[in-house]
Amino acid sequence: MRRTERRGRCGRRAGEISGRGQLASPTGHPYRGWRQWPDDFGRLELERYNIGQYDDAGAAEAAGLTPEHATLFKDANVWPPQEPALRAATHRYHDAFVDVARRVLGLYARVLGVPVDTFPLGDDFYTTTVVNDYPTWQHGTAGEQAEAPAADDKLLLLEHADSSALTVLHQQGAYAGLHGQRPDGSWIPVPIRPDALQVFTGTLLANWTDGRLRPGRHRVVAGGAVTRRSSAVFVHPGLDTVVEPLPAFADPDGSDFEPVSVWERANGKVEEYLRVFGRPEQLAARRESRPYVADVASA
Question: What is the pTM of this model?
Answer without folding.
Answer: 0.89
